[in-house]
């Protein structure tokens, strides 16, 4: 090498190594490398992971929670341009797309443009996984009036109806802040035949409505802060993982039908003074889970300890890992022993005890008005004196 001349070791690497490096970047960052040379432009056309997100086009220093409508329009337009640009460079059928992920705002006709571009890509290329993350630009549930929820849902359904090919090949769908018509969710599930992951945040068909879910391929389901009274998992033969957070009523909020493979369950809620405690043998009846997470938001413990019963034994017979998150401080934890007694294969019990002031209502007047409970614990003194767990590894307690 001549003295003083820098060696370009990166460009000396083979194409497959460079593509592997570029696959670890988002599409906007990867596209910037195309100005280096014609070779780098061709490498961008070989990417196997295409992640195009509106959040990557935010102005520097601007948070996604503080964007004007005009800025949203500009960002969405950039997402459309990036999607079209990266997909039109590819030679049909030459390289498999392992992941095609697009995150965008539900504004104007932009979703339809993105949906059609993704549909065309599915027709021209082998796409293993395709994901839509549809944002409304609202980040606090309290910011959303009912009319906003209904309007957003109608706009989404216009997008859905205009892009059947894209939704037909979709494997992951992430939705937020939508109040659907009565049959809309069912129609989406019927069309999205390849769907494996579904997340609904603040989505429903009305306050205190019932959400029914049936799907042949769905593996992961997340229902978070949805204003539903009851969720019915009617027929989900492939479902392995469920997240259920923020149900409205503690009286039979969940029905589990034919869900034979369910093994990972995460349940989170804030219980008020008048809310009844839950029997997990009833809440999770019909399952045999391996991994259970229960979160209490530093408020009233909403789980009721139980005597050993055949139903409880059936639910806990395969249980290996339990995570009890944000238990309130200053309360007896003896009640957790019933889990040990009912779960013969349990390996780890993890507990976090924390009065998280940032997430709690600290104003005493509001706590009384809104029926927060001051007696947050549960009593349980029916632990056998000679009880020993033959498989149990260890318990981890964390007081923060």
UniProtKB/TrEMBL annotation:
Gene3D superfamilies for this protein: 1.20.1280.50, Ribonuclease Inhibitor
> InterPro entries annotated for this entry?
F-box-like_dom_sf (IPR036047), F-box_dom (IPR001810), F-box_plant (IPR044997), LRR_At1g61320_AtMIF1 (IPR055357), LRR_dom_sf (IPR032675)
Q: Read off the lineage from the record.
A: Eukaryota, Viridiplantae, Streptophyta, Embryophyta, Tracheophyta
The record lists the membrane-crossing segments as: none
Q: Which residues form the F-box domain?
A: 7-54
Q: Where is the signal peptide?
A: none
Instruction: Tell me what this protein is called.
Output: F-box domain-containing protein
Which domain of life does this protein belong to? Answer: Eukaryota
